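Q: What would this chain look like folded?
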Amino acid sequence: MSHTEFKDMPLIEPLQHALAEKGYAEPSPIQAQAIPLLLEGRDLLACAQTGTGKTAAFALPMLNRIATQGRKPFRRGVRNLILVPTRELAVQVTESFRTYGAHLDLKIAMIYGGVSQTPQTKDLYFGLDVLVATTGRLLDLIKQGHANLSGVECLVLDEADRMLAMGFIDDLREIVSDVPKERQTLLFSATMAKGVAKLAAGLLNNPEEIRIDPEGTTAEKIDQSVLFVRLRDKPALLLDLLHSQYFEKQEELCLIFTRTKRDARLIATHLNRDGIRSDTIHGDRTQAAREDALRRFKLGETPVLVATDVAARGIDVKNIGLVINYDLPMDAENYVHRIGRTARAGESGR
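A: My prediction, written as structure tokens:
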């Protein structure tokens, strides 16, 4: 059954209220297809690009079920678990859950590496309705006795292809072994990469399948261009590109991708010297520094952000009008994920 507006969906009033406050009236294609299935308790394998609204596609039915069941999590227990590949994505997904669940009295938390465990163990102590986690830190807390997954009712793997590409398959298997077999399982992937289908076959029970975009394709509303340039001329061309084209639209943000942390630092320094406010996100920066850089980017205080692929899956920022691949990624999938930072939610981009 398809729904043209959220108000036609069987979602409880607090969720409808939160959607109305954000001005969300019509579900995206992934939301229109997935939400009714998930409200019925079905397992799901969904292939959808970033920027299609997939977080709400699983967050809304999950919150609806939690609120209507009325159960409470037990000490150190987790009722619903969302596994993500990066810290940035953990923050993004958690923010979405808190937005949609603003009028519900639920315990929602996130855990990831690179920061102190103490606040995370405190969050876990009294139990959680929703936990968003990266695999490494979650395994550490399980082994230390701070997290108990024996009561998990729904397991979500978000951006499963990225988790496989980053080598998290063994962590995933160990975590899944602690989760009850009787559960709802959802697997979301931007591409149907090698290994995703095999992973799904081992985790999902007679799942429904949804494909919003074919594997390896890019968003239709992205205007893509290729510039051929000698290596030594790339810095000058980047400046010319930003000055002559990009900054005609001052309200837009620009995201630049490089292959190495060193290049990210050099490019940001080069741009700042030329008067273009820039910052970086890469693996050598502390979590606090990365979060601060992302915050100032969102606010437009630094309209250009230079990033390595560690940030490709975790940045969900409006008004990114231009994505520049300063270095080409190693494969087509990473290219899709990089340029998927623009043209989000039906907007156009370059």
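The longest strand covers residues 78-84.
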